[in-house]
Structure formats: C-alpha cells, structure tokens
Amino acid sequence: MWVGLLEAPRRAPEEPGVYVIRWVRGGEPVRIPRLLGVDESGALYVGSTGNLRRRLRRLVRGLRRPGPKIHSAALSYYFFALHKRIEMSELEVAWVELGSRDEAGEQEWAALRSYAETYGEAPPLNRSLGRKKYLLLGIVELRARLAPRLDPRLAKLLGL
User: Fold this and answer.
1) What is the pLDDT of residue 136?
2) What superfamily would CATH give domain 3-151?
3) What is the pLDDT of residue 146?
4) Which of 11, 33, 129, 144 is the S-S candidate for 113 at Cβ 3.0 to 4.6 Å?
C-alpha cells in the first residue's frame, strides 16, 4: 500500500524491511524515462532498514531540514536539485516487512539489481550509494549472484 511520505513515519512498523519511494502527480505515478525504457512505477529510491519507522522518520527530517546526518536519498534529492521539480507532497512510499535486517539488505540488493537490469541504471536517489558500489563492481556482481530471488511483492512495487 502506498502512503504519502510525510505521513509514512506514523504508519510504518518498527520492523525490518525494504521501502520504495515513488513520484506521483494527480494520484498516478509519474512515468520516468530511463536508459533502457520508461519506468511506469515512478520509482525514485529503494532502501532497506532494520526499523522502517525510524528510517522513514530520518528521511522526512532530512527532506525538511538538511543537516550533517542526512539520509542518502534526501541528500540526492537536494544534490540533483529534484527539490525544485518534485514537491515533498508528491512523494509516496510503500514497504515490505521482512524477517531480519540481513534479509532486508539482501532484498534491497535484489531489487536494485533487477531494476538496473531492466532500466540500465539505478533509481535516481540511489545514485549517491551507487558511486561507492560501482567502484567495487566485482564484489557487487558476486553479491548479486549470491542474493536471493527478488521478493515478488518488491517486484510489483517497482513494476518489474
């Protein structure tokens, strides 16, 4: 279920999971051109955490008041000047609860890998994380091969 990002910290559970942030206008996802196609889901970010409520609270705080401990998606939102084009009220989030932080991390990798294979690039707000990961491409490839199959619930959120 998609929820407005600003209300998500109140509704999210204190459980591990993977969350997806998307861009919507008029109640519909914004179609975003990517290198290898058009993302109909409007995905801007995929992340994992051991506590969904705490992570989403940190994200919203970073979007409202950038500071030294800013969430990486909020940092990218400002760095790429998306704040000039995308209102915070146009951001929605959905999540999938998982059994552990480790499982959440594995599913995040599987989701990002599937997304990148489909569209030829990571979601735009994941790019600040990507710089570090791409330098270790061999490790990324190995981890992707060892990662479990993408959870179908996450695939559906990403339109894959």
Assistant:
1) 38
2) GIY-YIG endonuclease (3.40.1440.10)
3) 62
4) 144
**pLDDT band with cut points at 50, 70 and 90 for residue 138:** very low
What is the rounded distance in angstroms from the CA atom of residue 78 to the CA atom of residue 38? 23
Please tell me the number of Cα atoms within 13 Å of 113 on its side-chain side: 21
Please tell me the distance from the alpha carbon of residue 89 to that of residue 132, in angstroms, as a whole number. 30
State how far the Cα of 94 lies from the Cα of 159, in Å rounded to an integer: 13
- The pTM assigned to this predicted structure is 0.81
**What are the extents of the domains in the chain?**
3-151
- Give the span between the Cα atoms of 62 and 27, in whole angstroms: 24
Distance separating alpha carbons of residues 100 and 102, to the nearest angstrom = 5
Q: Does residue 137 carry a pLDDT above 70?
A: no
